[in-house]
Specification:
Elements: H1 3-12, E1 21-28, E2 31-38, H2 43-54, E3 61-62, E4 65-67, E5 71-74, H3 80-87, E6 104-107, E7 119-122, H4 127-130, E8 140-144, H5 146-150, H6 170-175, H7 177-183, E9 189-196
């Protein structure tokens, strides 16, 4: 990757402060769902998610880690150049204000202050582990379409990439969608994620 390309990518992803509350529509091959993000729950997390959605980082990617009853994980760009550049961008941890229960969404990490691009949606109650480990602070909640999230293909479980800590994601970063589509063709696709108007009270 050239210096100018790296620079242009870095400038495109320069972080902006997110609105206090905003909604993101996630269109998938299984249907659509809505994530409502609250900045006061996790300021760094909300800002990072806002920027990744705004710059279309998640568009045309895959739900590569789906474990029924536990979580759905996504957040590695299908374009290896972009995925590898953003892999090195991390944000500080936020204090835990919400819990890792069904429908709540948070960033994955490999340790303190290592949240980057990958997020997971809780499919069940994961408070026993994720509320204790540092860094797993939910920044939003699925408010529409949770039934869609729950029917994303989970037949591969941990074998189509696993979590950040498992150390089995290098091929996804090296080859992107080409690798996943060849090795795990049944994975559902994230078509696009867009910021949509929030419902008025």
């Amino acid at each position: 990757m050239t210096y100018l390309l790296c620079l242009s990518l870095a400038l495109a992803f320069s972080q902006h402060k997110a609105p206090a509350v905003f909604r993101v529509k996630v269109e998938t091959t299984a249907g659509s769902f809505i994530v409502e993000t609250h900045r006061d729950w996790s300021p760094h997390g909300a800002d990072r998610f806002y920027e990744l959605v705004r710059t279309k980082y998640y568009d045309d990617s895959r739900f590569f880690r789906v474990v029924p009853g536990r979580w759905v994980q996504f957040g590695i760009s299908g374009d290896p150049k972009i995925a590898q550049q953003q892999r090195r961008v991390t944000i500080p941890d936020d204090a835990l204000k919400q819990h890792n229960t069904r429908g709540y969404i948070a960033f994955s990490n490999t340790g303190p202050n290592t949240r980057s691009t990958q997020v997971y949606i809780n499919l069940g109650d994961n408070t026993a582990h994720n509320d204790i480990e540092a860094g797993f602070a939910p920044f939003g909640q699925v408010v529409e379409g949770m039934e869609v999230v729950e029917k994303l293909y989970g037949g591969y479980g941990e074998h189509s990439g696993g979590g950040m800590r498992a150390g089995h994601q290098d091929k996804m970063f090296e080859s992107g969608n080409a690798y996943l589509d060849r090795e795990c063709p049944k994975l559902d696709k994230l078509i696009r994620a867009t910021i949509v108007p929030s419902k008025r009270p």
